[in-house]
Amino acid sequence: MAPVKLGLVGIGKIARDQHLPSLSRSSDFDLVAAASRNAGVDGIANFASTEEMLEAMPEIAAVSLCMPPQARHAVAAEALAKGKHVMLEKPPGATLSEVEHLAGLAASHGVSLFASWHSREAPGVGPARDWLKGQRIRKVAVTWKEDVRLWHPGQDWIFEPGGLGVFDPGINALSIVTRILPFPIWLTGAELTFPENRQAPIAASLVFAGPGGEAVEAELDFRQTGPQTWDIVVETDGGTLTLSMGGAKLSIDGEEQAMAPEAEYDGLYARFAELISAGQSDVDPSPLRHVADAFLFGRRAVTEPFFFDPPAAL
Ligand code: NAP
């Protein structure tokens, strides 16, 4: 198959950190244009909006959307309606209904929609899923604690409605949990902690249950300084499985397993190419559904105000 001509939209942190390097290595895609209001990519055509990009370059067959979730639906809907294949950064949208709408649009226009979950491509995730298939699982403990100032410098959208707050990274853990567990889980309790000046939580504690009495607990926090923690520990009758560093490392009963090098975004673009050539879509909203359940069912706690750059007096 000739490389698919692709336009990249929303040139910010993740576009530069991951999408551009992966696209430069991909033989499946030819990055021909970018659309971003305040940024551009050297060496290709640049536009201020997706509309202008698709108007000027009808040869673009696919777009990959890297903007924050609140701005994604309108652009995705426009691209799908114009017959373009669409890849969405995680989370796939600000609401479940808009994601469902996009899935319907992709089907009716005969194009591929890929709601990507990059953490599912972490090297430990596939082997963890395979190992857990044969085990009786008792308990899962997720600890996802990172420093929002380090990973999301100045990104005020993250604390706006639809930005998900601490669930922006926490949904990565949920995307792994929903991939590796061989059974469904449902939320039974949650507490969400909101800074008094923000619309989205800075920390969350979640409890889920599984059909065999399995307990799944998750502690998410955006206020972690020093070492960062992205761990999932699964206790089973056959031993304890630990995924750490966001799924990059896997150990069984403390013994580290040999892993392929990290290549999450290369994996995502390979999957997007596969979907396009098979004429299929891949839209699994389950991680976003668990987050929506936490907003529906969680208790609310309020904590001190949060500022990316604390005023000098603080
Ligand atoms: P970002 O740098 O703040 O945003 C990306 C770009 O989107 C912005 O630079 C902006 O470029 C454009 N944009 C379009 N509409 C916007 C709006 N309404 N508000 C703000 N920016 C808007 O964010 P990011 O870290 O790249 O994250 C974007 C998405 O990638 C999120 O869904 C996030 O969960 C996901 N992600 C992020 C990371 C990470 O490490 N940061 C990792 C994996 C996934 P213009 O102003 O030029 O239009």
TrEMBL record:
Transmembrane parts of this sequence: none
Domain of life: Bacteria
Domain Gfo/Idh/MocA-like oxidoreductase N-terminal: residue ranges: 5-114
Gene3D superfamilies, A to Z: Dihydrodipicolinate Reductase, domain 2 (3.30.360.10), NAD(P)-binding Rossmann-like Domain (3.40.50.720)
InterPro entries, per database record: Gfo/Idh/MocA-like_OxRdtase_N, Gfo/Idh/MocA_oxidrdct_glycsds, NAD(P)-bd_dom_sf
GO molecular function: nucleotide binding
Classification via Pfam families: GFO_IDH_MocA
Annotated protein name in UniProt: Gfo/Idh/MocA family oxidoreductase
